[in-house]
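Troubleshooting log. The previous run stalled partway through. Resubmitting the same two chains, unchanged.
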Amino acid sequence: MGSAVAAIAARREFFEAMVVADYDPARAARALPAADPRFAAAAVDASDQAAIEALIAEHRITHVLNAVDPRFVLPIFAAAQSAGVDYLDMAMSLSAPHPTEPYRQVGTALGEAQFAAEPAWKDAGRLALVGMGVEPGLSDVFARYAADHLFSEIDEIGIRDGANLVVTGDDGEPIFAPSFSIWTTIEECLNPPVVYEAGRGWFTTEPFSEPEIFDFPADIGPVECVNVEHEEVLLIPRWVGAKRVTFKYGLGAEFIGVLKTLHQLGLDRTTPVRVGGVEVSPRDVVAACLPDPATLGDRMSGKTCAGTWVTGTGVDGRPREVYLHHVVDNAWTMAEYGAQAVVWQTAVNPVVALELLASGVWSGTGVLGPEAFDAVPFLDLLTAYGSPWGIREA
Amino acid sequence: MGSAVAAIAARREFFEAMVVADYDPARAARALPAADPRFAAAAVDASDQAAIEALIAEHRITHVLNAVDPRFVLPIFAAAQSAGVDYLDMAMSLSAPHPTEPYRQVGTALGEAQFAAEPAWKDAGRLALVGMGVEPGLSDVFARYAADHLFSEIDEIGIRDGANLVVTGDDGEPIFAPSFSIWTTIEECLNPPVVYEAGRGWFTTEPFSEPEIFDFPADIGPVECVNVEHEEVLLIPRWVGAKRVTFKYGLGAEFIGVLKTLHQLGLDRTTPVRVGGVEVSPRDVVAACLPDPATLGDRMSGKTCAGTWVTGTGVDGRPREVYLHHVVDNAWTMAEYGAQAVVWQTAVNPVVALELLASGVWSGTGVLGPEAFDAVPFLDLLTAYGSPWGIREA
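Second attempt completed without errors. Output:
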């Protein structure tokens, strides 16, 4: 993800310097765009708050963009807060299920630990722009756009994500290879999905609930989607009025089966098990057995679609139903940036946001989601980055 | 498996002493029947041929019964050969797929490494009785019985294994918990299944080939069975004439789905992967995540059935079809022996064989399968152990 951010940012003029940090300094160095003196590599342990603070001080960082997996949200977030700099991420602090009614009530919500720090961020006059990838991120921007420009009243905001990406093996046959971090995908899909309803607030359901076939644009077509725990459901109701907010992921029947089996066998667990003389997290072993999603771009084909489906009453007072969407073709992202589609689509949005913050078009203090800002300049700048969005009326 | 062997043998008089050896001496000690001075515990590394030879010498062992998983067949087999003692096992040396046509041709067959040592065993006048559990084992005895007493000509001998065992979790709901070593089950089910046909010899197919619904006796009923690599297919044609020999395992659709997913994700692999700072075999991690099958007996209910289905021409010259079978109820094995049904059913057969060898009713030299011996005394003695077999005419 960091490599794609660097490749996208390298084409822009809005920043003076960008430090790409990784646990493995060689990996950080490989992410640096060629012949661009604005970029530097550094080594850092993302679980070590003090080390991150030292890195911020050493390079006089003004904005920390967290591009690692959500296990490391809190130390990076706390380091930015402590160092008094602005912060962005693409996924929020992890949830914990309700101790007695996990499939009915929210326990600790996604991002709850970050919103708890809201007063301190506001007092310090600093901004934590949370959930600023594609989903959450662009999907939240779409929700704000719909509320401001398309609807007078919103019944439901449903994020819908689907793709027709296929990865082929050495023999040219399709292979099983998730296009995004399996660690995060397991976390999202096996946690109790969260749903928001006005009057009732946030509640949870069984995993894979409310299956529906959603017809995606471009040539993706119909995909089976199910409820999944995702930040948008927590973020959108804070700034956008809607009677219901959901997130459904187009996993498809095969992938749902794989996730159910991993859960059934306990292979989704993150607590270590003893194997021979060592201790390992089963979920880390699953991830180690699968190819690194970031390396799959040249064996992948197809498109991925992120978007926000909105129903309600249009500004003209008549019923309206739209799907605001952003489709990315893997062939294009590979040719232009050498990044696979899902990674590129996630990475482009925080770069757009950084540019809006750098120019002052977006500004704010506290812990804010993307829907707290004006959607139009964001969508215009995304289009200027060469990646237009679309709208489908039902 | 060793604990069940000891518990069963403790009720018999045919031996002077039995040493239960394990990598973990405390585990060996726990397997000793109470207040029976014939039993002793020892520590041994089953992968260390010299250590096994030393153990044989120390205790003046006459028969080595290998009751560990098939990865350790060769060092134990070689140690017995080198020490000049008799040997029994319940699974044979592992196969390796054909390098270019794994789903058509046999590469290295199950037991091939053991049969290669046949001349040396014969020269030494010592017996290696291989595949002497329930399947292989009792199933091979059934095949010999059918050939000697029921048929004048055999068309097909098909081993068919099915169960209705259910394991319940702490909340009383059924949980996923294989009743036999998952390591061995993965090995059996994902290796190319082997089939024997007179004239063509041994050949392999794709995993899970030739699905059929087989109606099992007792109250087990119909279960989906598929071809699986198993020793009987290699053993039976060496001693019993048949036009076709197969092994089909009643895995059921759910378990077949689990195995396919493990394979798809590479979690069936035994070669280590790097996870953080350590290296582990993914298959060992899968096993570590599941409950130890030997500990499930008191949470298990139902019956397991092993048997041999035979079609051909009866001794009266008319078409005949029979299913010779052995059904074990988990409630009975738990009450009688404190062992779960599948473990007990596997363990009882080598004890019966040891008793027949001790009494001289069975004798032989070389590397022999169970079907090389007279079936009747075996089946009679099994019944005398309290566990009768049955026959169903089609």
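Takeaways: Residues 251 and 257 of chain B are 10 Å apart (CA to CA). The first strand of chain B starts at residue 18 and ends at 22.
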